[in-house]
Design brief:
- The chain has about 120 residues and is of the alpha+beta class.
- It has helices spanning about 1-10, 90, 105-115; strands spanning about 15-20, 40-45, 50-60, 60-65, 85-90, 95.
Length: about 120
């Protein structure tokens, strides 16, 4: 999932997270617990020369994302940041709950809002 998130950031796509917890497992009828937001584990960092790079959080530490080592434009949905700082994508992007926020009716609006925040 991190790979696809990173590729979307490189392409300048809009992003958002959707929790799909609360859906009952057909075999056990138990509802699933909320998972982690993957946008909290991918970030953009600013280097001394002003370039921005992708990072991923591994065991609580931000490391450069090796599959996407080229500089990229700062995504418009992230606030400006200091040199040496890594901003998780979850700070600038929205997270929705599909069940509680009626995703079947609101998904198209969520997509449109994410595209607008990305300047598309």
């Amino acid at each position: 999932m991190r790979y696809e998130i990173a590729r979307s950031v490189e392409r300048g796509n809009g992003l958002f997270a959707v929790r799909i917890s609360g859906i009952a497992d057909p075999s056990t009828h138990q509802k699933t617990a909320a998972g982690w937001n993957p946008l909290a584990y991918v970030g953009v960092g600013k280097l001394k020369g002003g370039d921005y790079l992708l990072y991923e959080n591994m065991n609580g530490q931000w490391i450069r994302y090796q599959d996407h080592a080229l500089a990229l434009a700062k995504p418009p949905y992230l606030p400006d940041m200091s040199i040496g700082y890594v901003q998780p994508l979850s700070v600038g992007l929205l997270e929705y709950d599909y069940v509680e926020q009626n995703g079947s009716e609101n998904l198209a609006a969520w997509i449109a809002q994410a595209a607008e925040k990305a300047g598309k």
